[in-house]
Amino acid sequence: MAIPLTQDLVIDDEIYGRQVLDGQRDAVLIQLIGSPAFQRLKHVLQHGISAVPTSNICGASVTRYHHSIGACLLVRRLGASLEEQAAALLHDIAHTALSHTVDFAFARVVHEEDKGRFLAKTDIPAIIEAHGFDPKRVLEETNFSLLERDAPALCGDRLDYALRDSFNFKKLSADDVRLILADIIAFEGEIVCQTKEAARVLSDAYMASDEFAWSNATHGALYKFAAEAIKEAYDLGQLKLDDLWASPSCEAFWQGLVESPHPSVRSLAERVKGDLHVRECTEEEAATATNTLQMELKPRVLDPTVLLEGGKTARLTELDEDYARKVDNYRKSKKGRRTFVLE
């Protein structure tokens, strides 16, 4: 594949500000961004069914396009190699319409397990290879320590969506974002905070965002109901797996279920609405209520590594007893399968 001449690309990002990718040095990034496979991410909503206009209860319209470019810009500012920047850019390339909502329908992480199926029909591997990189290596994000680490540590993926989502959810101010970005550095291949104060601001906002959206019971109910409609449409032959990537937008994909020719799909889709609200109920309420559902909500927390004097490091929970108690109590509050009532 011949490498075409590439112009500089100016990116205005709400988290990192104006950034310029050099047409020669960063040509692989620019050409990947310009690929149809990457451009489709502009229409893949980060928060799935919770952000579809008819049911938008998160008040945000962040896309996988925003987040993918953000993860790239974040590891870039921390000194990542061009190869790792490309990996960051592509880490969510195979996300489908409605993002993680479809994982509940198919009982697997579709954008990871079916990545090869999607990429085989794109020019992404050829672009990577044309610039002298190994597609197999670049497309496996666990090869890159700044980009991907197990929770609750910081990594480029987790930190970008923490900043981006929390800012859009109004759990972080613009000043908070600047404080955190000024504080983080790469140390021995890991993203760390230089002060426990910045680590605490970030971690508190992350927990607040989790309570507001990621493990919120109402969001969980929307995901459950939407997933059941998707699975029903798939079982009835209305949807094929490739349709998850082929739809022009999340809105169009969902509208196809709302207007399904199958009454059972329409009936399931009708449960997804913007005024839905659920709350946890007592055992007594659960015994008599008819509009209940059971869910196990997975809490997300951060425990950033903080750099200390002399090159030593410690987790925030080791340095801040109050935060350690907060994490413990929060995890306990979300533990187990619980019963909720629809209101």
From TrEMBL:
Biological process (GO), any one: dGTP catabolic process
Cross-referenced CDD domains: HDc
TM annotation in the entry: none
Residue ranges annotated for the HD/PDEase domain, each copy included: 60-171
Record lineage: Eukaryota, Fungi, Dikarya, Basidiomycota, Pucciniomycotina
One cellular component (GO) term of this entry: nucleus
InterPro entries with a match to the protein in the record: dGTPase-like (IPR050135), HD/PDEase_dom (IPR003607), HD_domain (IPR006674)
Domain of life: Eukaryota
Species this chain originates from: Leucosporidium creatinivorum
Protein's name according to its UniProt entry: HD/PDEase domain-containing protein
Sample GO molecular function, one term: dGTPase activity
